[in-house]
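Message: Study each token:
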Amino acid sequence: MSGSTVPNPSKMSRRSLLAAGAAASATIVAPTILRAQAKPSQLVVATGGGKLDDAYKASVFKAFTEKTGIAIVTTANPAAKLKSMVEAKAVEWDLMQGPAEDFIVHGRNGLFEAIDYGVVNKAPLIPGAAYEHFLLTDIAAYHIAWNTKNLKGPAPKSWADVWAYQGRIGLWKRPFQTLEVALLADGVPIDKLYPLDVERGLKSLDKVKAKLAWWERGAQGGQVFIDGEVDVGAIWNGRVHEPKLNGAPVDFHFNQAVLVNDAWGIPKGAKNLKWSMELMALNMTAPVQAAYSRLIPYGPTNKEALALLDAKTIANLPSVEADFSKGRLLDLAFWADNSSKTVDRFNKWLLG
């Protein structure tokens, strides 16, 4: 499987990121030939909702509808539903967006169609973006954030500062990324995170368990910071960037950020495979990726898109060197190999 070729990212520069994944791209299977297929009136795309969904609608979905006349309807993207639909051979979605650390597992488990690289052009993509069963579509940051009205004292500069804060701490209710920041809070060097010491990470979370306010979806996560339901914690940069610009009482920085990717995949057995692949292909083009990055500050994975962005937009992307060097990439290979047992252990800890 393609997941086994993902590099173990130590503290990488952006230049080394572009070189490190070459082996991953080299393992892509030969493209399939898509059969002629009647044009549907709409495609159903499962997404994480919120600002991310808004950005897709205004960039790739708008462009696709203008090009094809096919409307895009969005819905929620629970992984459990993906599995049940594929197993029942009753797939309702045409395409799915979600975290890359989930998608590498879904691909290994046979839940996605193979990407047709005769339709999707992978040549301009950063090395490592093109997998057999899914594509990395952006670069985002799971970073330190805080509510400026609630904050007492100086803003936290590190995850250790977040852990020490005497107030409500907001974290994603998943082990992915959350265990990484727990280990950083416990003093693990950022270039020594992997393989994750899961038990040490859970012991670190034990120290703040009484202060934790969990959020479960990205849209909810951004809102708890904006509304002041939490004081400090972790959220993806795209969830608080625009609210901050619009005057919401939130702020953030990229120090010790865990750099992550959204991914797109087509559920196995999707009814409109040809058109789903066309939508996938359009999303990976430079103009569409640039339009997306103008709307939400996630870096493109098409290298040619950066040339279409102005300096102000580029300055807010976590994929540029000034910000990228402060964090590190999530190790997809670790999560592909350890996801199931780590999720089980994390869920047992939650109940303990």
